[in-house]
Amino acid sequence: MMKRFALVGVGVLVGAVAVATLDGARWMPTGVAEAASSDTYRQLNLFGDVFERVRNDYVEQPEDQKLIETAINGMLQALDPHSSYMPPKDFRDMQVQTRGEFGGLGIEVTMEDEVVKVVTPIDDTPAAKAGIIAGDLIIQLDGEPVKGLTLSEAVERMRGPVNTDLTVTVVREGTDEPFDITITREIIKIQSVKWRPEDDIGYIRITQFNERTFDGVKEAIDDLEKEIPADKLKGFVLDLRNNPGGLLDQAIAVSDVFLDRGEIVSTRGREENETQRFNARSGDLVEGKPVIVLVNGGSASASEIVAGALQDHRRATVLGSRSFGKGSVQTIIPLGSNGALRLTTARYYTPAGRSIQAKGIDPDIEVDQPLPEDLAGKVKARGESSLRGHLEAADGEEESGSFAYVPAEVKDDQQLKAALDLLRGIQVNSAFPPDPDSGVPN
């Protein structure tokens, strides 16, 4: 049975961080703001006074537009790492990116200590092929320092005509000196879903949630069920490792593929009447076959929604290491010809009422992925709680993330091997087993 979700009047994305490719947000027309107090207007007068003083007295003539955009970004960056201003071109680019095709290097990035930090390179893109890894700090672009640029400005400089080169200067933990990597820009076409049979098990990897993801998962299931005889098919592995997020409606639709009923996710804003709940529709497309979901420190936001929903409903066993922990939703507010505002407006909650903000999803079965010798001691565990200015956890202690390394070779992939063994009934060495009494019953 084919099931789709339509969010009438609102298109929603959720992503790991403010990124060069696609970010978390819901679309919303501008509305009526609350009336400001008289003290607020006095503060705005102060801003106007400072603005005029800079325009008139600074040693060089500044650009008014740049002053305003910098002031807006400063205000938003003081809120959390995921709120920002998008100039018109960036807004147009983001609208294109959600369709799963865009120009650039193929990296998810954020800003940290005034330099660009790589969250993750996207599979099969120029950045990944050139050797960029998660955690790299980009300090120069074609020899020009990144320091002093906003994230949007840095992203703009990383974009450019197809088949042109960009040299990025990288600082990597464990290396003594910065080094250069030259990357050739390409049109990045994201095939967000890849699949293959692993003998008697269907393996499905989702790299991000764009407009094509649900259709890709459905195609993957159809194809795998044709390749593996029904009497031999033991189940499915859904690999969400290093998946930074994407469209919320696609995360809901993918969750619904494996669920027959019940809540998938809820979003809760500042006011009680802003709560939204999204439920599964009747029909499990894999007809109850066992499912293992793989997560790690690079699994964020939309991928955490899927993992959390299937975990809470005890529909799947989550295996791997703690996920990133981005449990917030950003609203994209168009500003007419002036671009758009990306603003954190809600937290999302799993079916059991868990906020994973700055905590992440704890796997039912913890299996660490050993780092190769050349990366040992050079990469750090990743998580929302490590981002400067992050939105604090709704309740309880915050948790650190985990490593986001996934081997290129299956023979070295301990987490995948553990998932395959588990589906075949082989005992898995793990930190803790699934808790049959946890979560939301179906």
Describe the structure.
By secondary structure, the chain is an alpha+beta fold. It contains nine helices and 22 strands. Helix 6 (213-227) packs parallel to helix 7 (248-258) and helix 7 (248-258) runs parallel beside helix 8 (302-312). The model is unreliable at 1-12, 16-25 and 438-442 (pLDDT under 50).
**Which topology of the domain at 193-327 and 346-423 does CATH recognise?**
2-enoyl-CoA Hydratase, Chain A, domain 1
Per DSSP E runs of 2 or more residues, the count of β-strands stands at 22
Shape: globular
Q: Give a quick account of the main beta sheet: strands, pairing sense, barrel closure.
A: 8 strands, mixed
CATH homolog superfamily of the domain at 193-327 and 346-423: 2-enoyl-CoA Hydratase, Chain A, domain 1
Strand content: 15-25%
Main CATH class of the domain at 193-327 and 346-423 = Alpha Beta
Task: Please estimate the helix content.
Answer: 10-25%
Assign the structural class, choosing from mainly alpha, mainly beta, alpha/beta, alpha+beta, or little secondary structure.
Answer: alpha+beta
Which CATH architecture of the domain at 193-327 and 346-423 is right? Alpha-Beta Complex
Topology:
Elements: E1 12-15, E2 25-27, H1 38-57, H2 64-77, E3 84-86, H3 88-97, E4 101-104, E5 107-112, E6 115-121, H4 126-130, E7 137-141, E8 144-145, H5 151-158, E9 165-171, E10 179-184, E11 186-189, E12 193-198, E13 201-206, H6 213-227, E14 235-239, E15 245-247, H7 248-258, E16 263-268, E17 276-279, E18 291-295, H8 302-312, E19 317-320, E20 328-334, E21 340-349, E22 365-366, H9 414-423
Parallel strand pairs: 2-20, 13-14, 14-18, 18-19, 19-22
Antiparallel strand pairs: 1-2, 1-15, 3-21, 4-11, 5-6, 6-7, 7-8, 7-9, 9-10, 12-13, 16-17, 16-21, 20-21
Helix pairs in contact: 6-7, 7-8
